[in-house]
Amino acid sequence: MQIAKSLQQIQSSYIREILEAASNPNVISLAGGLPNDATFPMDIIKPAMAKLGEELAIFQYGDTAGYGPLLDHLYTRYQLPANQKAMITTGSQQGLDLIARAYIDPQDCVVMEAPSYLGAMQVFGLCQANIVTVEQNKQGPDIEALEQCFISNAPKLFYSVPDFHNPTGVCWSLATRKAVAALCEKYSVTLVEDAPYRELRFSGETLPMASSFCPDHSIVLRSFSKIAAPGLRIGMVSGKESLIQPLIKVKQGADLHSSVPMQALLLELLNNDSFAQCLENNTALYRDRYNKMAEELEKHLPNGCELTQVEGGMFVWVKVPQCDTFALAKSLLAEGVAVVPSDVFYPPSAAKSSALRLNFTNCSPFDLDIAIQKIGQVLRTQC
Ligand SMILES: Cc1ncc(COP(=O)(O)O)c(C=O)c1O
């Protein structure tokens, strides 16, 4: 049977290919986006799972919008205004998919920063959106270019990751957050604020969400993959009720609801007094790993390469002289180091700059040392 035309144009997910190469025990992987499993709050999870085993009701079918007690908790935790609605999703990735299916017809314009999150490009590509990109600078998207883009393309959505962007690690400045929100209001574009890394800040000041400056023109995606555990597959989508209702309809057709036992488990976690400490330990570990990586990169990166400093999240973006980044990543893999070449983070038509995305959360300091030395050596010979 022939696969659908919409799928024919999608290349096999590079994420899967990277994770496959990275699972080779002889390869040091800076490629995946895996949280460090030492941060999973197993001391809370183990007894909570045993307790939940006694609760028959959570093993029955549940509500599409989510497990009521968890939703109540999240409305308070994130101080959602009274006119906002939240729905639990199977990871924030499902939230993205539901938004695409509920709102995007083929050729509808969706704007993103370039480079952008691979999973978002895949979702919007599958629904045959016309993906248009705007260059990202150190403060976030180029505001003048964004306004021109809104004027020329009349997009439905602007997809963004303002806190510790994947792949660049960039955190939008306050001025950029306000300016983007103002443009979304002015041109009636819905801002999709994807915030899986927001709570992984290890230095600097937390900034208000961009969506808080345009609450009626935004949808927020949150994830518990990076602050609890990705295997739970729990995320949340929230926004003005009229924006969320269509997503509930699509989710009914997609999976009826997300796993209720996993939602109940997440609630146990969030309600546990030691969860805040777990989160602090998590960010402290990532701060140490980032500092180690940044220190090694300073030592080993040849001239012409540049590391963008980050204040949180899981990735750094190392700019390299213009080159074939796929070939560079291949050479590194031959030396036993997996990285992600920048090209995969751009749609085919976008202007690309050469860089490597490096993950700093999931590799020991010892392996980081070896990997960065090898990156330095390969860059010196190839760039
Ligand atoms: C920017 C971004 N959005 C969404 C996701 C998906 O996360 P989840 O595990 O919540 O589905 C990821 C995963 O790495 C991501 O980087």
Structural commentary:
- Residues 26-375 form the Aminotransferase class I/classII large domain.
- It comes from Vibrio gelatinilyticus.
- With 383 residues, this protein is α/β, with parallel strands linked by helices.
- 42% of the residues lie in helices and 16% in strands.
- The protein folds into 2 domains: 5-40 and 276-382, Aspartate Aminotransferase, domain 1; 43-271, Type I PLP-dependent aspartate aminotransferase-like (Major domain) (Aspartate Aminotransferase, domain 2), CATH 3.40.640.
- Helix 5 crosses helix 9.
- The N and C termini lie far apart (45 Å).
- Pyridoxal-5'-phosphate binds next to helix 5.
Topology (SSEs and partners):
Layout: H1 5-8, H2 14-22, E1 28-29, H3 42-52, H4 68-77, E2 84-89, H5 91-103, E3 109-114, H6 118-126, E4 130-137, E5 140-141, H7 143-153, E6 157-160, H8 174-186, E7 190-194, E8 218-223, E9 235-240, H9 241-255, H10 260-271, H11 275-300, E10 306-307, E11 315-319, H12 325-334, E12 337-338, E13 340-341, E14 355-359, H13 365-382
Parallel strand pairs: 1-12, 3-4, 3-6, 6-7, 7-8
Antiparallel strand pairs: 2-9, 4-5, 8-9, 10-11, 11-14, 13-14
Helix pairs in contact: 3-10, 5-6, 5-9, 7-8, 11-13
Bound molecules: pyridoxal-5'-phosphate.
Pyridoxal-5'-phosphate binds at residues 33, 91-93, 117, 119, 161, 166, 194, 196, 223, 225, 230, 235.
